[in-house]
C-alpha cells in the first residue's frame, strides 16, 4: 500500500511523529494509501525551509520564475492520464472529468501566471516639477496555502502558481481527504528542479497541521479555500495578528431561468451546474429558480437531462457521476434527503443511495472478468431532484455540497433576486435569459462574486474570483488581484 510523504526543503520526508492517516478510495470505501498525519513539528520545518528560500526566490528574475512555472505545467500535462486517474481514485470523480477539467485547469493555472509575468507592469505617476512616483510589488514572504477536497489539484495550483510567480515561497496544506495529486505534484517539482524550499507540502488534518500553519508567526499570508465554518475560525484565530487573508468559502448558488430563456440550453446547463463533480463544486447551482409560466416545461427538460446521467465506476468512460468523497460527507448529504421530505419536499427523481445505486451499472471489463464487486462499499448517491420546498427551508438555505438540487418557481424578476440573494451565502449564480438587458440587470442585482449569463463555470483566469457575505473575503485571479494579494504594493517617490 502506497505511503504519501511530506515534501519539505526539496525532499520527500516522513512526518516527524511517524503518524499516518488512512486514505480511502471513495468508489470502494477501502483504504488504499496512507497520508502523513503531520504536526506542528513538520510545519515548523516547512516554514523554516520556505523562509530560507525566500530571499533568493523573491529576487530571481521574473523570466526564470516564469520558465519554472512553464516547465511544471508541461510536466503535469505530459502525465495527464496518471494525474487524472490518481485524482479520480482519490476523490471519487469520473476519470473523464479529471481528464477534461481538473488536470488541464491545473496546467492552465501555471501557464497563465507564467504568461502574466511578462506583462507585469508597474504604475508611474508624476507631480509636475516635484517628483515621479512608481509602484513596486514586493512579495509578501512565506504563503500558507490551504485547500479542500473537491477539486484537489486544481484549487491547490490556483494558489501555488500565483504565489511562486510573484516571488513568494509557500507551505501548502492540501486536504487530508484527497492528498494524492499534491504528492504527485511534489514529484513534478523535484523533476523540474524547482529550487529547494520554494514549495513545501505538509499533509495532515486541519487541527494537526492547518492551525499551526495559520498561526505561525513567519507566515504573513494565508490563502484558504474550504468551508465557511473553518474559514470563519481562521479569521478569528488570525485576528490578533497582521496577516493577509483570502477566504474562498461555501455557497448556495442559484440558477435563475427566465421564461424567455432558450429552455433546452438552460436545462442542459442547469443540470451540469447542479450535478457536476457529484454536486461537489462550490459554484454548483444547487437551487434552480424557474419562472412560473415555464416551470412545467423546464422541469420536464431538466428531468430528461438528469435521467441521462450515469452513476458508477469513476474509471468507466460512460460514467458521468462518481462517488461522494468520504463516508462522513456521504452521511451528511444523505441526512439532507430525509430533511427534504420532513420539510415537505417531494423527490421527483433519484433519492436512492448506497450499493443498490451501482448494481447493474457498467464496470470495467477486467473487474467483470474477475467477478470483482469492488464498488459495493463506495459512497454512492443518485442525482436527486427535490421540488415543493419553500425558499427558507433548510435544504434551500444550507450548503449540501452533493448531488441534491431543489427547484423553485418564481413570478417576477424581483422575486428571483430576492430568493437568489436570500441566503447567508454570496458566491455565484447563473442567469438564463434571451433578454440581454434583463440579464445585465439581474446579474448586477446578485450579491455574489461571479455571475454567468447563459453559461456556467466558464472560467476566465483574468477575472477576479471570490465570494461575498459568508462565501468569503478577498479576490484572487488575473494579474491585478493575485498580485495585490501575494505582494505588498509599495510607492517609491523620486524627487526631480
Ligand atoms: P474544510 O473547511 O473542512 O477544509 C478545507 C481545508 O482546511 C482542508 O485542508 C482542511 O484540512 C483544512 N482545515 C480544517 N480545519 C482547519 C483549521 N482549524 N485550521 C486550518 N486548516 C483547517 O472544507 P472541505 O470540506 O475540505 O471543502 C468543502 C468546502 O469548501 C465547501 O464548503 C465548499 O463550498 C468550499 N469550497 C469553496 C470554494 C471557493 O472557491 N469558494 C472552492 C471549493 C470548495
Query: Unreliable segments (pLDDT under 50, ≥5 consecutive)?
Result: none
Largest sheet: 7 strands, mixed
Instruction: Report the helical percentage.
Output: 25-40%
Bound molecule types: nicotinamide-adenine-dinucleotide
Radius of gyration: 23 Å
In the sheet with the most strands, the strands line up as 15-16-17-14-13-19-20
Number of helices: 16
Structural class by sheet pairing and helices: alpha/beta
CATH architecture of the largest domain: 3-Layer(aba) Sandwich
Name of the level-1 CATH class of the largest domain: Alpha Beta
The averaged pLDDT comes out at 96
GO molecular function: oxidoreductase activity, acting on the aldehyde or oxo group of donors, NAD or NADP as acceptor
Organism: Gonapodya prolifera (strain JEL478)
Keywords: NAD, Oxidoreductase
Protein name: 2-aminomuconic semialdehyde dehydrogenase
Description:
This protein has 496 residues and is α/β, with parallel strands linked by helices. The chain folds into 2 domains: 2-249 and 471-495, Aldehyde Dehydrogenase, Chain A, domain 1, CATH 3.40.605; 254-453, Aldehyde Dehydrogenase, Chain A, domain 2, CATH 3.40.309. The chain contains 16 helices and 23 strands. The protein has helices at residues 40-58, 62-78, 80-91, 95-117, 152-165, 180-191, 206-215, 228-238, 263-275, 295-307, 327-342, 365-370, 394-397, 413-420, 436-445, 478-486, and strands spanning 2-3, 6-8, 11-13, 20-25, 30-36, 124-127, 131-139, 142-146, 169-173, 199-201, 221-225, 244-248, 253-257, 285-291, 346-349, 384-387, 404-410, 425-426, 428-432, 450-453, 468-469, 472-473, 487-495. It has a 7-stranded mixed sheet, with helices on both faces. Strands 10-9-8-11-12-22 form a 6-stranded mixed sheet, with helices on both faces. It has a 3-stranded mixed sheet with strand order 1-5-4, covered by helices on one side. Helix 5 (152-165) links the parallel strand 8 and strand 9. The longest helix has 23 residues, at 95-117. It is globular and about 70 Å long. The termini are far apart. The relative contact order is 0.14. The model has no long low-confidence stretch (mean pLDDT 96). Nicotinamide-adenine-dinucleotide binds next to helix 7 and helix 8.
